[in-house]
Specification:
The protein is α/β, with parallel strands linked by helices. The protein has one domain (8-231): Rossmann fold. The chain contains 7 helices and 7 strands, in the order βαβαβαβαβαβααβ. Bound molecules: NADPH dihydro-nicotinamide-adenine-dinucleotide phosphate.
Length: 237
């Protein structure tokens, strides 16, 4: 556990899966946590009540809504951008609007949220974005738009780390491999294919990812910036 008491944390996309585990972890460690959600109102309200955190509806596909939420929540000690979507399929037949929505949520929202947060973040603030091991490795067909979106975060972290370095704000990407959530259930149809790529033949748990986020956000993460942190059971090995 890390002591985050007195710290203000905003998690974009916290109602389910990895985001919910991150909300739970920061709340258990004493932080003052706000999180956004888009579609899962009931799950968000239940999580907020259980963890004594604050849930606010803000669609990450809406740039202005994201910027407004970050601004209203500031100054933040920690910003975590977890909200992300995947649209797998043959890009030759996929609707370009669907692809652009992936880029809006997975790339544009983290960029604008990070910039807005950095405007008021105190010295030593932390910006952490959930990328994916698919930013490094996409070993099957149908995931090009998702891979593009997660690779783009790598360039974002490298650049913004330098832009914000004078303030001591760090910018890092956490890159999970298969994690058991609604997006990628441990017993789903992709299970055997995914495990065939991995050194550890299991899906990870959302709490394992939340632990890495807490490490980067805590005092031991103070010298880590502009970097990618893969937690993937050896998927990319
Ligand atoms: P889930 O689909 O289980 O949960 C996604 C979360 O993001 C939900 O809380 C959802 O909220 C929120 N979200 C999605 N779209 C929006 C939006 N437009 N606006 C606001 N919130 C939104 O996904 P995971 O927990 O599995 O994934 C979380 C992150 O981890 C994503 O960035 C994903 O790409 C990444 N990741 C996941 C992996 C996995 O195997 N699970 C592997 C590698 C990376 P709501 O339901 O309220 O809309």
């Amino acid at each position: 556990m890390t002591d985050f008491s007195g710290k203000s944390v905003l998690v974009l996309g916290g109602s389910r899966g990895i985001g919910a585990a991150i909300v739970e972890r920061f709340a258990a460690d004493g932080a003052d946590v706000t999180f956004s959600y888009a579609g899962s109102k009931d799950a968000a309200e239940q999580l907020a009540a259980r963890t004594k955190t604050k849930a606010i509806r803000a669609d990450s596909a809406d740039r202005d809504a994201v910027i407004a939420l970050v601004k209203a929540s500031g100054p933040l000690d920690v910003l975590v951008v977890n909200a992300g979507v995947a649209e797998f399929g043959d890009p030759r037949t996929q609707n370009p609007d669907i692809i652009d929505r992936v880029f809006d949520i997975n790339v544009r929202a983290p960029f604008h949220a990070a910039v807005e947060a950095a405007k008021t973040m105190p010295q030593g603030g932390r910006i952490i974005v959930i990328g994916s091991v698919n930013g490094d490795r996409m070993p099957f067909a149908g995931g090009a738009s998702y891979a593009v979106s997660k690779s783009a975060l790598q360039g974002m972290a490298r650049g913004l780390a330098r832009d914000f370095g004078d303030t001591g704000i760090t910018v890092n990407i956490v890159q999970p491999g298969p994690i058991d959530t609604d997006m990628n259930p441990a017993e789903g149809p992709m299970k055997d294919l995914m495990h065939s790529f991995m050194a550890l033949k299991r899906h990870g748990r959302a709490e394992e990812v939340a632990g890495m986020v807490a490490y980067l956000a805590g005092p031991e993460g103070s010298f880590i910036t502009g970097a990618m942190h893969t937690i993937d059971g050896g998927f990319g090995a």
